[in-house]
Write a structure and sequence with these properties.
- The protein has about 150 residues and is mainly α.
- Among the domains are: about 60 residues; about 30 residues.
- Helix 1 packs antiparallel against helix 2.
Length: about 150
C-alpha cells in the first residue's frame, strides 16, 4: 500500500475513535473520554512513526506462520525435532550432575581421596575437614543429651 492509503486508514480510524470518544465521554464520564482519546490518537501516532505498516506486516507474518502451523506437516516435524532437542539438553544436564557418562580428564583421580604430601622423617599432619569437625561436635552434643 502507498502512503495515501495508510493516511486514509489512519484518518478513518481516528475519526471513528473520535466518535467513540465523544459518546464515551457523554455516557460514562471524563475517565472514559480520556481513555477513548488515548485510543483515538494511536492510529495517527502509528502512522507518523511508520509503525502502522510494521504492525500490519508482523500480523500478516504471524498469520501465515499460524496457518502453516495448522496445515503443514513439515512444520510439525520441526516442532517435534525442537522438542527432542530440549529433551536432549535436559537429559545431558541430569547426566552431568550425576557424573554419569563423563570421562575424567587425564591425571584426575576418580576417587575422592587426595594423597598427603610426604614429610621428612615426620608424618604429615592429618587434613581435617571443617564441616566434618562441626558435624562431630553436633553429634557429640546430641549424644550427651540422649538424642540419637
Amino acid at each position: 500500500m502507498d502512503d495515501v492509503t495508510w493516511s486514509a486508514l489512519a484518518l478513518t480510524l481516528t475519526l471513528l475513535g473520535g466518535i467513540y470518544t465523544w459518546f464515551a465521554y457523554r455516557r460514562r464520564g471524563l475517565a472514559a473520554g480520556v481513555r477513548g482519546a488515548g485510543f483515538t490518537l494511536l492510529p495517527v501516532a502509528l502512522l507518523m512513526t511508520d509503525t502502522l505498516q510494521m504492525l500490519t506486516e508482523v500480523l500478516g507474518t504471524v498469520g501465515d506462520w499460524a496457518g502453516d502451523l495448522v496445515f503443514n506437516p513439515f512444520m510439525w516435524a520441526g516442532i517435534a525435532l525442537a522438542g527432542i532437542s530440549v529433551v536432549c539438553f535436559v537429559v545431558s544436564g541430569y547426566l552431568t550432575r550425576r557424573e554419569i557418562g563423563t570421562t575424567p580428564p587425564e591425571g584426575r583421580r576418580t576417587d575422592d581421596t587426595k594423597a598427603l604430601p610426604e614429610g621428612r622423617g615426620k608424618k604429615a599432619p592429618a587434613v581435617v575437614d571443617p564441616v566434618d569437625a562441626e558435624m562431630a561436635e553436633i553429634e557429640a552434643l546430641l549424644r550427651k543429651r540422649g538424642i540419637t
